[in-house]
Amino acid sequence: MAVLLIGSTGNGKSTFGNFILNPEDKHMFDQQSFTTARSNMPQTQNVTTGSTLIPVKGHGKDGVPLTVIDTPGLNESAAHDLRHMIGVIKELQSVQEVKACVLVVKFNSKIDMQYKATVQYYSRLLPFLFERNIVIAMTDFATDERSVALRRRQRIDVEQVKSNAVREIVESGGLSYSPTLFTIDCLPLSEEEKKYSLSVRKAILAYIFSLEPIKAGCLMVAKTPFLKEEDTQQIRKLEGEINGYNRRLKQVNDRAKEALDKMQKREQEITSTTGELERFKTELADKDTSDTVIAENWSVNEEWRFMEWLTKAFDIRSKWRIHGVNRWTNVHCEWKDYEEYSHGVKGMLEGSFMRGLYATIALETTKREKYETEINELKQRVRECEKLLQSMIELRNEIREHYKEHTEQLQLLEEFIRERRKEIKALSGDVMSIEEALRRLESLAI
Fold this sequence. Notes:
Elements: E1 2-6, H1 13-21, H2 25-30, E2 48-54, E3 64-70, H3 78-95, E4 97-98, E5 100-106, H4 113-125, H5 127-130, E6 134-139, H6 145-153, H7 158-173, E7 180-183, H8 191-210, E8 214-215, E9 221-222, H9 225-287, E10 292-300, E11 309-317, E12 324-329, E13 333-341, E14 344-352, E15 359-366, H10 367-370, H11 372-428, E16 431-432, H12 434-445
Parallel strand pairs: 1-3, 1-5, 5-6, 6-7
Antiparallel strand pairs: 2-3, 4-8, 9-16, 10-15, 11-14, 12-15, 13-14
């Protein structure tokens, strides 16, 4: 089974760990598993472990393996604290499961802010342990007659001291229960004192052995207060960037909407102008041809002269060159002295007039000649329309490019915001992977 020792520097964690592993004097003073302070300087600078076999009734003559994990005190430096936590997690992962977390505190010493911060940190790091497997070991509780008399003389209420310690630890760790507390002197001198301390040690081990082990194979590293503060500042910075991106997003979105409105308007104008151009081209194609069309038309229709013989002279002139003549008469009329020239025809029409139409002459010219003025006007309109349409298309394409740029900016800004929010989500957590912790440790070392 594995036991984790936690406490501020100078509270006797290493001494307690040595005593739990092996209370013999040689081990306690000469061959220590955990080096203890021999001055006012702390000795535990890294996470260290010690192992032994503990005799437990019903578990064979060899006993049960016990691993004690001794942890350094926190608040040395940001880098040291993080390095210690990485070491703690690695050790816990190596043992796979933990029986108890022992909070070591000296008897009658004040639970100061540093100790509370340590408890708070480990409660975030190991919430599963703090839920039910916390044990308090109050060290330096001397049981010799002089110490007992001195406590009585100083009016130190032992039970009140213990109660106060439990209360403050419960508040600091956010515990929902009052942990079991043991008072012990890990450096007893007299045989009687040793006997008492050994009985307490036995009770502690028996109690720890009775607890349900907690799996510790997939632990995360809790962020130290320094890293939490650093991440809080980074979150504020990222939130400021997001606010800036959102303002920019609104501006670009307004511009994109404006560009889209302009583009749609230009599309409507292009559609209208294209339709007008097609009408001009269709009309031009119809008129700018060599197809013939009537240039002038002449007819005789004198119904009031019924069955009279008459002679009708005609001289039909056209503004345009004549390319064909169509003549028609009824059977009672004939043409006399008929002559065609470039721009007309002339002659006589003789015959007996009857009711209705008697004769017609239609002079034909080409559409291109007859509609020359209109054709020129249409060609000018086509040129102007094509030029206008080209400028419209160029302006539409320019607006389209602006709209594309705006939409790309929108996508980029939205991606920036998503990335920042993802970073904030990662920074907002209380724990991180060992890989992330190692990366942070490397940045702190730099």
